[in-house]
Amino acid sequence: MNRYNPTERIGVNETEKIVIQNLGWIFREQPIVDVGLYAIIEQVENGEPTGKFIAVQIKSGSGNFYKTDKGLSHYVTNIHYHYWINLCIPIILVAYIPEEGKTYWQEIKENNFKKNKKRWKIEIPFKQEFNEKSQNRLIKITSEKNDEKFDVYCGRVASNDFEDIISDLESINDATVCINNITAIMNLQSEEIGKKTEQFSLLNEKKSNNYSSEVSMLYKGLSKTMNLTAKRTETEIELFSQLYSVGISAFEKLLINLQVFNLKFENFGGDSNLLRQVPSQIDFAVKKFVVLRDTLKSMPTNNFIIFKEAKNQYLDV
């Protein structure tokens, strides 16, 4: 059971207050919060709803951010990044800092992110507080990206999109293939490390005249294998992130549609065990990866720079 987080709840309430009181717009909290779509706000003009929407992701508490001189840095996973970027309506990130009583915001779009080796980073400037002064920029955002098929009043896409939803849902199956590929890659790497360890042991026992050059060759061979494994694993992880984000988005849409039309998942040829299997597959892959990572950490580099670089690169992945 998830623990209750009052700070998160306060952040949602504070955002709703600003939307309703300061902007005079409509705030609709979402019933399903998975990858991070907390609410949808609708622009109001002269007291009339305009049918223009913005999705809202809310993060509360300074622990979710790294503070800089100019603002707040927030890091997200590949899954969150791809999910947000591919939404059919514009989306903003709202940061509520209860210690300061301040609320800031930033538009979530591709060119506002920078990628490091593991995650994506988005900057939220202190000068961009979320209040009535944000209205003009928010209006511009709604006019740049809105999908008329999105029916916010029912919290769903148009009913005739069921086939597209089911098709997108199959991306979770494709994502599990990536998990299996990652596991297979790690198994091969583990076998390779086992073989090289045996060869190191034999060399240490014999201590031949060519000991140094033979050890160097072993380290170079292992380094090359690790570089290839790291690249292949990184590619599979990136692909998994994209496929899984599409699948989870489709699953959220499907759940709401089933509730609205009082239907069952099986009516569309879906496998109700599909999502139940994914967490265990991810856990299995992660456990194997942790074992492999710990094994690599314990391996001495013996001042071989090429192996040290390969080892660090693989540990980063």
TrEMBL record:
Highest taxon in the source lineage: Bacteria
InterPro entries: DUF4365
Domain DUF4365: 8-140
Pfam families according to UniProt: DUF4365
Name the record gives this protein: DUF4365 domain-containing protein
Species name: Chryseobacterium edaphi
